[in-house]
Amino acid sequence: xxxxxxxxxxxTLYMPATRPDIMDVVMGEKIQGLRSLVVCLEDAVAETDxxxxxxxxxxLLLGIEARGGRPSGGPILFVRPRxxxxxxxLNEWSLMRHVDGFVxxxxxxxxxxxxxxxxxxxxxxxxxxLETPEVYDPGAMVELRSAMLxxxxxxxxxxxxxxNDLMGCLGLRRSPAMTLYSxxxxxxxxxxxxxxxxxxxxxxxxxxxxxxSPQLLEQELALDMAHGLVGxxxxxxxxxAVIHRALQVSLEDxxxxxxxxxxxxxxxxxxxxxxxxxxxxxxxxxxxxxxxHWQGVRPETGGSSDTFGGSLRLAELVG
Length: 319
Prior knowledge:
The chain is of the alpha/beta class. The protein is built from 11 helices and 11 strands. Strand 3 (76-80), helix 3 (84-91) and strand 4 (101-104) form a beta-alpha-beta unit. The protein starts with 10 loop residues before the first strand and ends with a strand.
């Protein structure tokens, strides 16, 4: 059961389950502005530390219980198990009621049934990660799409694109001087947006692993937004505000979306020197309104003094 909008995810931060300070982050006391958090028991935890991670997770949930639950303003909380077998064990913990869902690592057609059987608590959302060699095959993605629609209906909040793992499938690592869109991901990301997005699945953007290239991160985020991605994995708290700024909508887009969704909108009209056609742009407009609700509106640097709640510039009828 989807409890949150995919646009509420924003920048998603991963933390190893072995970290001692997870409680402070979960309770919204340590990282201001964080909107979604993944407590990871998979790649971020060595095999020898798995039991420590599980113990730390249990103590986290006991701590949340002792505090009477998580605060309403804290981040959405996911756990990433190592595999479906671990997920089945966690699924039985009564304290998992304090978690919003599981990140599903390396989902593919061959293991989707295992995950369906492992996670039986309908209140737990699923956020599968697409990060195996099959992702390069559009036919395999069409099959996986059909399987998710059939076997996990209404369970998936978003699909995560595992950029680093997908690059690793080819023996590659991103260059610190270019965005992922100058790599084979320039084929994978648009393909997934088409195959999965056309079926209604939201997708989030791969991690940007460079910490000292803020301009390059902004360039990549602009391309993420152009492809309709709804959030992005963060590797460090310093990236969170940058990601959230990119997710904000422009006032121009917001005003255009409002006009398109208006019951009084004509079939075709001009607004801000662009053609608007509600029959074609209706879904885009809905997306803009939802993004604005969760991520806000980008402050204008000049020109119009309109605000989110203010008056709208008038649309001009074509002709």
